[in-house]
Predict the 3D structure of the following.
Amino acid sequence: MQQPIVRDARIVIIGAGAAGLAAAHELSTHGLQPLVLEARKRLGGRIWTLHEPDLPAPVELGAEFVHGAAPEISGSRALSLDEMTGDTWHIRRGRRLRGDGVFHEEMEGRPLFRVSGGCSAIIEPLAHGIDVATGVPVCGIRWSPQGARVETLKGDCRAERVIVTVPLPLLRDPEAFPFDPELPVKRAAAAQLATAKALRITIRFREDFWSERMPDLFMLSGPGETMRSWWTTHPLHSTLLTGWACDRKAANLSALPGRTLLGRALESLGRCLGEPARELEPLVERYWSHDWQSDPYSRGAYSAVHGDGVEAAIELARPAGRALFFAGEATATGGRAATIDGALSSGRRAGRQLLESLSM
Ligand SMILES: Cc1cc2nc3c(=O)[nH]c(=O)nc-3n(C[C@H](O)[C@H](O)[C@H](O)COP(=O)(O)OP(=O)(O)OC[C@H]3O[C@@H](n4cnc5c(N)ncnc54)[C@H](O)[C@@H]3O)c2cc1C
């Protein structure tokens, strides 16, 4: 007989992004078999890698880079990292100036890496052998010290312990993700953190028209531009460029229909390169973008910490009673919030908290 996708389980994890799958992996290495409930029909959450057969590099719709040391990722024997070298160019008062060789993130001076094969390479090994039910949006949790009833659009299930990894905007909103009894301290902590907006578009051109003037281009940055950065797949040769907008500019671009978004992106790229957008348009073969802001399961890109935010993340990471545990990038501490590495470490931390609670 086929097993129902939503079934009672000793441990239920909500969300199959980096945090949820890292928690599941941590528990499975201790002989436990959690059930992961995922709203979307795919794994990875804000990691979404497309492998197009005719492209030399993967196309990322969400996270792409590993920032700095990132011990969860650099320490994994299953992953290999490529440091971003190549030239950075800056647009200053209409002039293009070459940067200093090896790319270091603006402001923070940290090196950047890409995961070989794309960020999906982080997700796949974690999900191996884990029982994940996809297409199952959770719509509420009734809980007590003895356990929880997880309500989903595909039926309810009971669990002794639940790990919640939904993104911050859902954790902040009692209508989108209700707890019964409610968790006012958790909600207040979530409200102290902001959610950053980001929009990226990857464009495949018919030719790498930039390479004559900037042969080893990795990153072109135009502060103040609609799309403030453009990057190539350097050192892999391709005809792909990815544009990046954040905050208010990302919010303005997010709701636009695809062709209009492409047009705005080309205007911005054209200004950076000193080429009219109408000359770039015939060179476009395809483009890819995802609106993370209106996606109901992310409602933005990643958490942003201001002032008291450090305390807020510590509060978010605290279990509620013996039944509820919390993970996700916004619950990561030590400056790792907003990143894949932070999401992974938070998932492992929630897994360990749960294991400890079982041995008490
Ligand atoms: C455009 C963009 C670019 C980024 N770039 C980088 C980068 O270069 N480097 C970097 O380190 N980080 C980057 N990030 C951030 C990084 O993607 C996240 O920090 C990380 O992937 C978050 O993992 P998570 O598991 O905490 O959350 P998520 O990946 O969001 O996982 C949460 C899961 O919960 C599911 N879910 C939500 N609601 C429900 C529900 N009601 N029921 C069931 N399931 C639900 C979601 O579908 C999702 O799968 C970027 C993010 C975006 C959006």
Notes: The domain at 49-118+199-289 is CATH 3.90.660.10 (Polyamine Oxidase; Chain A, domain 2).
